[in-house]
From TrEMBL:
<dbReference type="InterPro" id="IPR006223">
    <property type="entry name" value="GcvT"/>
</dbReference>
<protein>
    <recommendedName>
        <fullName>Aminomethyltransferase</fullName>
        <ecNumber>2.1.2.10</ecNumber>
    </recommendedName>
</protein>
<keyword id="KW-0808">Transferase</keyword>
<feature type="binding site">
    <location>
        <position position="216"/>
    </location>
    <ligand>
        <name>substrate</name>
    </ligand>
</feature>
<dbReference type="InterPro" id="IPR013977">
    <property type="entry name" value="GcvT_C"/>
</dbReference>
<dbReference type="InterPro" id="IPR029043">
    <property type="entry name" value="GcvT/YgfZ_C"/>
</dbReference>
<feature type="domain" description="GCVT N-terminal">
    <location>
        <begin position="23"/>
        <end position="283"/>
    </location>
</feature>
<dbReference type="InterPro" id="IPR027266">
    <property type="entry name" value="TrmE/GcvT-like"/>
</dbReference>
<feature type="domain" description="Aminomethyltransferase C-terminal">
    <location>
        <begin position="309"/>
        <end position="390"/>
    </location>
</feature>
<dbReference type="InterPro" id="IPR022903">
    <property type="entry name" value="GcvT_bac"/>
</dbReference>
<dbReference type="InterPro" id="IPR028896">
    <property type="entry name" value="GcvT/YgfZ/DmdA"/>
</dbReference>
<comment type="function">
    <text>The glycine cleavage system catalyzes the degradation of glycine.</text>
</comment>
<comment type="subunit">
    <text>The glycine cleavage system is composed of four proteins: P, T, L and H.</text>
</comment>
<dbReference type="GO" id="GO:0004047">
    <property type="term" value="F:aminomethyltransferase activity"/>
</dbReference>
<comment type="similarity">
    <text>Belongs to the GcvT family.</text>
</comment>
<dbReference type="GO" id="GO:0019464">
    <property type="term" value="P:glycine decarboxylation via glycine cleavage system"/>
</dbReference>
<dbReference type="GO" id="GO:0005960">
    <property type="term" value="C:glycine cleavage complex"/>
</dbReference>
C-alpha cells in the first residue's frame, strides 16, 4: 500500500481504469469517500478517520480487502515450489495454519510480504499486497516452473472481508452456521478453516493487520455483498462500523506492522526491517542438504554482516507528527546531521501523541535515544522506543 496522505491527494484523480471491488455499491450506499489505490477504487473513510480507528480498538470494524491478491499454488510439489520461491519454510506449515513470509529478489531485496495459508496437503493460498499482486503472480509462475505445481490467480473471483476488534468473535460467530460456530470460535491466531458464514462458504482465518483480534473471510466475489450486509447487521448492536484505508493505516502503524512501499521495498532486505526471523536459512531438502531458494546467498551474507540502518519506533515528544520521507536528525541541537528517514508517521489516536517508524543508523537505534525529525523546517524532538507502540489488552 501507499501512504494515506498520497491516497487523499489522489481522491480527485480517479481513473476509469481503476478496478471496482465486489462491494463497490455497498461503499457508495454508505457514503464512503472513495480514492484510487493500487489500481482499485477503495473506501478511504465512511465517517471520520478517528471515529473508525477508535471503534476498531473499542468494539469492531469491518474492512473491504478485496483489492488484495489471492494466488492458489497446488500440486504434489506445491510446498517445495514455495520453499524455493519464498524465504520461509512452507512445507513445515501444517494444514489449517498460516505463515507470514516474503518473496525476495535474487539480491535479497523484498518484492512483497505475504501471508500463506496451507489449505490442504498439496494446496496453498498466497495472499499478496494489491500493488504487487501481478508481480508476485509472475514470479511464482516462473519459480514454480521446475516443480510439479500449478499457480493460479484467483484474485478476480475472490472477495476478502475483515472484521477486527475486541467484539469480532461474537459478531462473526453470530452469523456462522451452527455446526461451524465452535470451530470458528476456537481458531488460534494465524489459523484458518472452511466454514459457512451467513449462508456463504468461506475460508475463515484468524489473522489481521490492526493489532486487534479479528477474522478475515475469503469468499466468492459474487456472494460478498450479502455477507457484508449480514455482518453489518449482526455487528450493529456490538458497535461494529465500516472502516476505510485511513483507519487501517493508523491501526497498523500503532501495531508496528510494516507497509510495503514504506518499511519494505526492493532496496530493503528482511533483516533491516527487523524481520530476519522470517528468513529460514536452515531449510533442507529431502536428503538433509541445505535448500537453495531465491535470494539465499545475499540474505545469508546480510545476516552475518553489521547493518547499515535499523528500523525503529519513534515516540513524538511534541505535537507535530512526522510523515513518510521526513529526515531524522541527530537531535534538536544537531538539526544539520541527518541520521535516517521516516517511513511512516501519524498522530496516534490510541496513545495521544505522534508516532513514527524510521530507518536510522545502528548506533542511534537503542530504546531511549533522543533524536529529532525535520517537520517542515522545524526540528521536532522524538525518542526511540520498542515496537509495537500499541498492544491490545489481554
Amino acid at each position: 500500500m501507499t501512504d494515506v496522505p498520497d491516497l487523499q491527494s489522489q481522491s480527485d484523480q480517479q481513473s476509469q481504469s481503476d478496478r471496482h471491488s465486489p462491494l463497490h455499491a455497498e461503499h457508495l450506499a454508505l457514503d464512503a469517500v472513495m480514492v484510487p489505490f493500487a489500481g482499485w477504487l477503495m473506501p478511504l473513510r465512511y465517517s471520520s478517520d478517528l471515529a473508525e480507528h477508535r471503534c476498531v480498538r473499542r468494539a469492531a470494524g469491518i474492512f473491504d480487502l478485496s483489492h488484495m491478491g489471492e494466488l492458489r499454488v497446488e500440486g504434489a510439489q506445491a510446498g517445495a515450489a514455495l520453499d524455493y520461491a519464498l524465504v520461509g519454510n512452507l512445507t513445515a506449515v501444517p494444514v489449517g495454519k498460516a505463515r507470514y513470509t516474503m518473496i525476495c529478489a535474487a539480491d535479497g531485496g523484498v518484492i512483497d510480504d505475504l501471508v500463506v495459508y496451507r489449505t490442504g496437503a498439496q494446496a496453498y493460498l498466497v495472499v499478496a499486497n494489491a500493488s504487487n499482486a501481478e508481480v508476485v503472480f509472475a514470479e511464482l509462475l516462473a519459480r514454480a516452473a521446475g516443480f510439479e505445481a500449478s499457480v493460479t490467480d484467483e484474485s478476480a473471483q475472490t472477495a476478502l472481508i475483515a472484521v477486527q476488534g475486541p467484539h469480532a468473535q461474537r459478531i462473526v460467530t453470530a452469523v456462522t452456521a451452527a455446526g461451524d460456530v465452535d470451530a470458528v470460535a476456537n481458531l488460534k491466531y494465524y489459523t484458518g478453516l472452511p466454514a459457512t458464514v451467513a449462508g456463504v462458504e468461506a475460508l475463515v482465518a484468524r489473522t489481521g493487520y490492526t493489532g486487534e483480534d479479528g477474522f478475515e473471510l475469503f469468499v466468492p466475489a459474487a456472494r460478498a455483498a450479502e455477507l457484508w450486509r449480514a455482518l453489518l447487521a449482526a455487528g450493529e448492536p456490538a458497535g461494529l462500523v465500516p472502516a476505510g484505508l485511513s483507519a487501517r493505516d493508523s491501526l497498523r502503524l500503532e501495531a508496528g506492522m510494516p507497509l510495503y512501499g514504506n518499511e519494505l521495498d526492493r532496496t530493503t532486505t528482511p533483516f533491516e526491517a527487523g524481520l530476519g526471523r522470517v528468513v529460514k536459512l536452515d531449510k533442507v531438502d529431502a536428503d538433509g542438504a541445505p535448500l537453495a531458494f531465491v535470494g539465499r546467498g545475499p540474505l545469508a551474507a546480510r545476516r552475518s554482516s553489521p547493518p547499515a540502518r535499523v528500523l525503529v519506533g519513534l515516540e513524538g515528544l511534541g505535537r507535530r507528527a512526522a510523515r513518510h520521507g521526513f529526515a531524522v536528525l541527530a537531535g534538536v541541537e544537531k538539526a544539520d546531521v541527518v541520521v535516517g528517514h521516516v517511513t511512516s508517521g501519524a498522530p496516534s489516536p490510541s496513545l495521544g501523541h505522534p508516532i513514527a517508524m524510521a530507518y536510522v543508523t545502528p548506533e542511534l537505534s537503542a530504546a531511549g535515544t533522543l533524536l529529532a525529525v525535520d517537520v517542515r523546517g522545524r526540528a521536532e524532538p522524538v525518542r526511540v522506543v520498542a515496537l509495537p507502540f500499541y498492544r491490545r489488552p489481554q
